[in-house]
Design a protein that fits this description.
The complex is a heterodimer.
Chain A lengths: L3 H42 L1 H22 L5 H33 L2 H6 L5 H31 L9 H22 L3 H18 L11 H7 L3 H15 L3 H24 L7
Helix pairs in contact in A: 1-5, 2-3, 2-5, 3-5, 3-6, 3-7, 3-9, 5-6, 6-9, 6-10, 9-10
Chain B lengths: L2 E12 L4 E12 L3 E5 L6 H8 L7 E6 L2 E2 L4 H7 E4 L11 H11 L4 H14 L15 H13 L5 E5 L7 H18 L2 E5 L3 H4 L5 E6 L2 E7 H5 L6 E7 L4 H8 L4 E6 L2 E6 L4 H10 L6 E7 L3 H8 L2 H7 L1
Parallel strand pairs in B: 3-8, 3-9, 6-7, 7-8
Antiparallel strand pairs in B: 1-2, 1-4, 4-5, 9-10, 11-13, 11-14, 12-13
Helix pairs in contact in B: 3-4, 3-5
The chains are: A mainly alpha, B alpha/beta.
């Protein structure tokens, strides 16, 4: 009898642990699903405004460059279209998202989430998804309209899917990070607007790297948008190349880094 | 009773020590009690409460929940302690029922249990009619009630409520007080209640703490705290319109008279003589132009004013 008891316990305990673990995983999946639904509800409420805001600036610039440039080469056309696609990501994924998160933070919205036993990982993932959903439509629309206006066709490949996802998430990561660390809403506004102008017009988004002075070239290497624009341009013109692999690797690094910075260093529950 | 919270020498300073929101605060919260937290605006109540829920870290001192430092168990704390500070702004795009069920599910409740409890809360708080409306489309008072329902859903050990009845009409205030009492009595939930509504809170709290300028001035049972204030009873008399002076002169022979308004007076009397004086007032009501009277014992409001509510004292008493 003395030897039976531990055997029975051993048989029962792992099963109990497994059940508890499965229950924990189910709970975490439920949690992320509900957090997604909350974010989605907000987008559903204001999708017309999001669509308008995300498309208006890049669409205007796209038209302006169409009127301004005379007989552009196919490369120049793709550069203009890709530049405006990236512009759309900057508007929604960095500018608007940073301001939205900062606004929520300073309006006390995080108090609700901080009062619940949810994991920071899930909360950050839900915010990333929000950024992705708000940036995605305008990028696709600008790509479609751009091809129509300039009468060209992109080179499509399956490589577009990971590049597209990573491009969105890398920019969304920056926007989320700015929003989370924002000391006050005015500062976030100022920073987001400055970044919008600097990244869009003083980094190789609308222009090529060679067109910029050395100092801006060095600065451009800090922005994920430089790699987004490079990857898209190469993909649309040549398909998947070594340069696309390098750009994709850098973008993956940006996604991981921004996620880790938010996850590890940003305190959302405890104010010191 | 077992101790739920243990607060030891908590200090919270801002701006490099220039602003001291909480100064050397120590107290305990017993499991199952309702503790009222009173104090004037800017007294440091909300800062203290935010430290109790683990949203702000004290500059020094320690806060323990069930014997363990709360900052070593923030997730567990969020599971066991519900905090209500305002309506749930973060969820304005959701429907009322979703707000409550989602909150329950984020606290770990199974879907059906969360829905069942949400339905009960919707009914208790008279929100059933608006359950399918977006939170942003209902009235301010209803939003507050939804916030309270969201705070109440789930199996919590403690409820920390910061001004739960603000902006509510009398009927809804009563509804909320009754619900808080019910949760305390039937589920044994410990309640920490920050409110300015001292008169209403007096009906539900077991103990009271008064905070002013970041310091804990007093913490005790309602009965013992009342002994701190003027033990004289107050007889509030309404005189016939235009005859206040007549009433005032007549009342002066029984004690100190304070004029409250054009035809309202307060007579302060020794509690042992109160019964006899009331009888005389009734007998002479015509002669002294008394239209109405009421006898008021020392209240928690008096304690609040006596200890901390200096602003209110000037126009309240």
């Amino acid at each position: 009898m003395g030897t039976e008891r531990p055997l029975v316990q051993e048989a029962v305990q792992p099963h109990g642990e497994r059940a508890a673990e499965a229950q924990h995983i189910r709970q975490k999946l439920n949690e992320i699903w509900i957090l997604f639904r909350i974010q989605f509800a907000e987008i559903r409420e204001s999708w017309i405004w999001i669509f308008f805001m995300a498309s208006m600036f890049p669409f205007s610039t796209l038209l302006f460059l169409k009127f301004y440039t005379v007989n552009p080469t196919p490369e120049a056309m793709i550069r203009i279209i890709v530049g405006n696609m990236v512009f759309a990501v900057i508007v929604m994924g960095i500018n608007a998202l940073a301001q939205e998160i900062s606004w929520q933070k300073h309006q006390g919205h995080f108090v609700y989430y901080a009062s619940l036993p949810i994991s920071k990982l899930n909360f950050v993932l839900a915010v990333f998804l929000r950024g992705f959903l708000t940036s995605f439509p305008s990028v696709v629309i600008i790509a479609a309209i751009g091809q129509l206006i300039y009468g060209i066709h992109f080179h499509y490949s399956f490589g577009l899917i990971p590049v597209f996802l990573l491009s969105m998430l890398a920019c969304v990561g920056i926007g989320t990070m700015i929003g989370f660390v924002s000391p006050n809403h005015q500062f976030t506004n100022l920073l987001a607007q400055t970044l919008l102008m600097v990244i869009s017009f003083l980094s190789p988004v609308m222009v090529t790297m060679e067109m910029l002075p050395k100092m801006l070239q060095w600065l451009s290497y800090l922005f994920p948008t430089t790699y987004v624009a490079n990857a898209f341009r190469d993909l649309f013109i040549h398909g998947w190349t070594h340069a696309v692999t390098v750009n994709t690797a850098v973008l993956s690094g940006y996604v991981i880094l921004s996620f880790l910075v938010i996850y590890r260093f940003v305190e959302w529950r405890v104010e010191r | 009773m077992p101790i739920l919270y243990e607060v030891s020498h908590v200090e919270k300073t801002y701006k490099k020590g220039k602003v001291r929101a909480n100064r050397d605060i120590s107290f305990t919260v017993q499991q199952g009690e309702i503790l009222g937290v009173f104090g004037p605006n800017g007294a440091g109540k909300s800062t203290l409460i935010k430290q109790l829920v683990g949203h702000i870290k004290p500059t020094s001192g320690e806060i323990r929940f069930e014997g363990k430092d709360i900052f070593k168990q923030t997730n567990r704390l969020a599971r066991l302690v519900s905090y209500y500070a305002q309506e749930p702004h973060a969820l304005t795009s959701l429907k009322v029922r979703e707000v409550i069920t989602f909150t329950g599910r984020l606290r770990g409740m199974p879907k059906r249990a969360a829905e069942r409890e949400a339905d009960i809360l919707l009914e208790q708080l008279h929100l059933t009619d608006v359950q399918h409306k977006l939170l942003k489309r209902i009235s301010g008072g209803q939003k507050r009630l939804v916030g309270i329902a969201a705070a109440l859903i789930g199996d919590m050990k403690a409820l920390i409520l910061d001004e739960p009845t603000n902006e509510l009409d009398p009927e809804n205030r009563r509804l909320v007080w009754n619900l808080i009492l019910e949760y305390n009595r039937t589920r044994g939930v410990t309640v920490l209640l920050v409110t300015h509504n001292v008169l209403e809170a007096e009906q539900v709290v077991d103990r009271v703490m008064v905070i002013d300028r970041g310091q804990l001035l007093a913490i005790d049972t309602v009965g013992r705290l009342k002994q701190l204030v003027d033990q004289r009873l107050r007889i509030e008399v309404t005189s016939r319109f235009g005859e206040r002076e007549k009433t005032e002169n007549a009342l002066k022979k029984w004690g100190e008279v304070i004029v409250l308004s054009e035809n309202r007076l307060r007579l302060m009397v020794d509690k042992h003589r109160a019964s006899a004086i009331v009888s005389e007032i009734i007998e002479q009501s015509d002669a002294i132009a008394c239209e109405e009277y009421k006898l008021i014992p020392p209240s928690l409001e008096d304690v609040y004013f006596h200890l901390g509510g200096k602003e209110a004292l000037t126009h309240g008493n």
